[in-house]
Design a protein that fits this description.
By secondary structure, this protein is α/β, with parallel strands linked by helices. It contains 15 helices and 16 strands.
Amino acid sequence: MKALRFDVDAKCGEARAGVLTTRRGQIETPVFMPVGTAGTVKGIRFEELESADLDAKIILGNTYHLWLRPGVDVIRAAGGLHRFIGWDRALLTDSGGFQVWSLGALRKISEEGTEFRSHVDGSLRFLSPEVSMEVQAALGSDIVMVFDECAPGQTAHDETERSMNLTARWAKRSKDAFERLQTAGADTGHVQTKDLSGRQALFGIIQGAGHLDLRRISLEQTVNIGFDGYAIGGLSVGEEKSLMFEVIADVAPRMPKDAPRYLMGVGTPEDLVEAVARGIDMFDCVLPTRNGRTGQAFTSRGKLNIKNAQWANDSRPLDEACRCSVCQRHTRAYLRHLYMSGEMLASILLTHHNLAFFLDTMRGVRQSIRSGDFPKFRREFTERLDANGE
């Protein structure tokens, strides 16, 4: 039996709408997944994420951060990450590869894995495909990511090729270790289901920076190993948007049609809509929560900086087209007052609205694909953002 099931029930060009069934329930796609790096989606309670306002079906956790703090032993003793944090819906965990890459000169990469100094206490640590799989089994996430090396979009061809081949070797080691751990019952999140195996699902990651020839090779290498889903990594890390979309447009339609396609770490609402148009099913990004904490709201008419003095007496909601509870109750003037006063409620309310906007955008995307109106939705969505009439 499979660990997950993916059914595409509508297409509009390359855009796909479907249902991803995990051991913890169904997720309609295309889907945006809020990021809960350290076991929390910053600035919002799980009750709000589960509310009708947001209704997030899946969130992310991160192997690197949770491994360093509070540590695997604490989470395993609690019965896995779901029980530790009090979240019963689906969880995806990133392998830690990107976080280790982002340490730059503080890490040393070898065939075996990556040695680095912990940002928490400075201790010397070693993360490898096998360690990443062990940690993710202890976390008990429903979707596990292979351990990879991230080569940014502008990396030279030779260096990218070396990195891509290392990622392929690590992907094979990740799968081998994953299978051993599943057989040994190391998965703390195992759930009995009627139609699925109850095991964790494992996604492979396609790398290759901005080089289309290497992206295609990486795709072939990854598909040959065989995974439950496939991700595109190494984008939205400083390259031009045009290069990102060029890579997605070339790679996504070549990815297996019967498996979910996940674009890692992307992006703005317009990025999501454009990537859906090129065949992507799953997204995650810290922007709605991070920007909410710094006073920026995403709206149907573009970004709004609540710190600006022009909102001091503005009685309108953040977004007059938004039906979230924040927009139904609070004015820009009040939100600006909270933010300028240093009140934590400002970050909480802006985060709630931003997540509502991202999740509602994806609901609109799904509905438009199913009704055959996605080109119209895409055009009107983009035109409103470009008009930026604030």
